[in-house]
Structure formats: structure tokens, C-alpha cells
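Predict the 3D structure for this chain.
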Amino acid sequence: MEKPALKQRLMTIADADFTPPVDAFELASTAMGHIGDSDPLLRDELIYGSLARWIVNGIFSSQQLHSLATTLLDDHHLGYRLGEKDTDSIFTRSFSMLLLAPILYQHRRQAVFTASEFQSMLQRVLTVFAGEQDLRGFVEEKGWAHAVAHGGDVLDEFAWCHEVQSPDLQRVLSVIQKKICQGDVLFAFDEDERLATPAIAVLQRGVLTLEEVNAWFDTFKAYLEDTLDPPMRMWRAANVRHFLRSMDYRLVSLDLHAFRGALSPVLSLVSPYRSNTASDEGVAEAD
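Done. Predicted structure below.
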């Protein structure tokens, strides 16, 4: 189906409250070929908007969900030109990632993947998320790129899957930390919140020990001690600060106070009002 015909078909479906047609799976499979289109209406509102609703509402069988996931994980979708920056390939990677989230949501209800398939899927997502270099949130005229936020949504679904136990939960925390500390960009589109969500989910699972979580918080210190030239040094500090503040707020809200012990010292390192610094004595650090 050509792009204009697909867009018109999906617009008609959207006007009908996204009621799935009888050929919903065939249409979804066709739409996957346009999941990275630079047209934000087609990509975000129509393709993702339709498919995500149908997946969550149980329109597709386990076999059909498995087929969709297999496509999303391949090198033409999730791994499409991985490593590029500032090109339209980001839309294919990012929205392929995002569409995995509702599939994992359904997996927790109807076992779409075998244990080995699940582990391969987790490894693929962690590898792509770690390797993503295009950290743009929003692109003028083309809409959301948001690879970091979309990755966070998928990691949150993984964190709640019973197949993910201590070693993998620690890998999830590690990849979140490394992305927050990457330092290439100042996150300005709620990426800190979207990554705090899976990190909190890991803690809520109750699988990791307090010592393991505290050790994870402590490892942020090593990143903050690295020498980076401005403005990247300030970007990294701000990203870590916003992420940890989000974590701290949620820990308080969820009555998970035990985890705050190791968080607070790290947060104090990136606070612009920390004590025992030259700025406290009236000497401002050069911007």
C-alpha cells in the first residue's frame, strides 16, 4: 500500500475511534514499513496510535504479536542505521522501540515469547538503547524523536516481567545510568522522568538487595569525577541532578525511604547549592 493510501485509511480508522478493521493484522504489518516516516501525523498519531491501541486491547493473537515483535527487532527497524546522529533514521529506531512496550505489556498477560526469545529480546533492546547516539527529543516539523524516553518506556515493561531477575535488573539500571551520564546533550523533554520510571520499577520489584541498589547509586560518583569540557560537564551534572531528584521524589511518595541513604550523597555532588565549595564562600565558578 502506498503512503497516501495508508494515511487515508488510518485517518478514516482514527475518525471511527480507532475501531480495528477485519484486516487489522495485515494493515499493521503494512504500516510497519512506514513506522519511521518523517510525517509526524502518520508516524506518531496514526501508525503508533492505531497499533498500540489494538495491541493493548488484545486484538492480535500471541502468534501475531510475535510476528510484529520479530519485525520490530530486526536491522531494518530497531537497529536501522544505529549510531547515526541528526538523521531521519532516528524515527525508525525510536518508534520501533516504542511499539515494543505494548507488546511486552501483553506478554505479561498471554506469554508471547519463550524464555530464550525473551532473553534475546532483552539483550537486543539493551544493546540498541546503549548504542543510540541520536538523543534529540523533538525535531522541528518532524515531531518527536525521543529515543531515550521511548527506551525508558520499554525498559519499564521489561522491569515488571517475572523473567527479569537480579542480573538483568542490574543490567537495566546500568544502561539507564550510562544514558543519563552520556553528557552529549542536556535532556529537556522529560527524559529524566521517563528513565526514572523503570529505575523505580526495578526497586519496587523487591528483587535487588539494599546493598546492590546502594552500590548502583554510588557508581554515579565516578561519572561525576570525569573531566569534561563545558558545556558537557554542566549538561551531565544537570541530567544526573534532574534524574536523581525525580528518583528521590518517587522514593518518598512510595515510602521507599531505605533507598534514599545512598542517593542523597550523590545528589549533593550535583547540587548548585552544595556546601563546602568555593561558591559557598562567595567565589563563583566560571561558566
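Residues 60-277 form one domain.
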